């Protein structure tokens, strides 16, 4: 009965996999969505089943052209031939909620993708969600006991996002937000959206001519470095989660493409989610606690994020987290996967798991954390956000002692990130495209960090005391360590320019220092 799970020894029976796919298609769009999620889990689904379920991502039986074209004309209020000079006679892709045609705009000659919603889908979705919710109510006790999660809440979240996907005007707005976020990133391609040609059931956007991201051979033949492409993808995902707080909630292989110029392209923005500033900071906290090897606090971070239920005893989880991280580091970080951390399904975890599945499909030994850690190190060292400045201090001071080696490691990792991303790493070094690719930042810009450090040294008595102690703790002057740190950054910093900026900032620093000093005097007099 459960022969689709990894680890079964029964003979492979491809027709059963097809039966499962066909069954999901017959059951309706919500079941197709569930199949799409399973298609990206090579760790729990056997390969023959996974291959069949992948078809659900863009090759579901479409509705007839006549029906789809009438919806387009009804939604846009004009005949097709008035708006488009050409439109494909067959669907380019058909998924759970809609199908896509390729067309050419009559007015400009631009190639576009037309996404049109299946007719009468909303009542079907409501019916399916009612069935899911009823089933979840029966399973909730087992789910809470065995998995530590609420099955009803999971269905509610799934249903909420599914219903949001039915309104294509929301998706158009999501695309515009992603365009704004990645406007200065030459490694990421977001399609332009034509809002004047879109409505609640029709969406017209720029045509993306890319390579399916699960076809490593085609990617290599296009002159793209697979590991470099994955580095681009992981960096883009981390920026969505930790920088923008707006992330693609459904990044399955049908929605991600490799462009021939090495960029990663995203499509289908119906399912996106917002990560609050607080949760972004908690994710950073989790990384900081991992760096500090503070696994008890790391377990608490997962509770704060909602991956674990409130009141869960985290004591048994702490040794597991320690084993995961130390084992990952010992094996070059290749064996780490997010499923080891938690089984609690949420949109964040689903997004990470889906992209992790893509990584494993393209390159099974891809070192996910070896991309993630340098990115976080760079954010900690360069981001002026006060919350991240506070986290940096937490990393650099442990039990009151300054961690010189940790600072060196952060700088090395951050320089690695800058070096790797100074040009698109997906383009092979000797390719003509690599020579023409837009250059990103080539140095680790620590100007704001140095300015903030100088300000904190003058204004914050606690930090000043800690830093002074750092130079002479253990009854010795740490001149050698300071020289080592300087040697790491001397090629990254234009010292005269930094000094000039610090001097220009000096009046405001002195003002803040005087205000802080006067406040402390007045406070002392009150007592």
TrEMBL record:
<dbReference type="InterPro" id="IPR000719">
    <property type="entry name" value="Prot_kinase_dom"/>
</dbReference>
<protein>
    <recommendedName>
        <fullName>Protein kinase domain-containing protein</fullName>
    </recommendedName>
</protein>
<dbReference type="GO" id="GO:0005524">
    <property type="term" value="F:ATP binding"/>
</dbReference>
<comment type="similarity">
    <text>Belongs to the protein kinase superfamily. ADCK protein kinase family.</text>
</comment>
<dbReference type="InterPro" id="IPR050154">
    <property type="entry name" value="UbiB_kinase"/>
</dbReference>
<dbReference type="InterPro" id="IPR004147">
    <property type="entry name" value="ABC1_dom"/>
</dbReference>
<dbReference type="GO" id="GO:0004672">
    <property type="term" value="F:protein kinase activity"/>
</dbReference>
<feature type="domain" description="Protein kinase">
    <location>
        <begin position="86"/>
        <end position="402"/>
    </location>
</feature>
<dbReference type="InterPro" id="IPR011009">
    <property type="entry name" value="Kinase-like_dom_sf"/>
</dbReference>
<dbReference type="Pfam" id="PF03109">
    <property type="entry name" value="ABC1"/>
</dbReference>
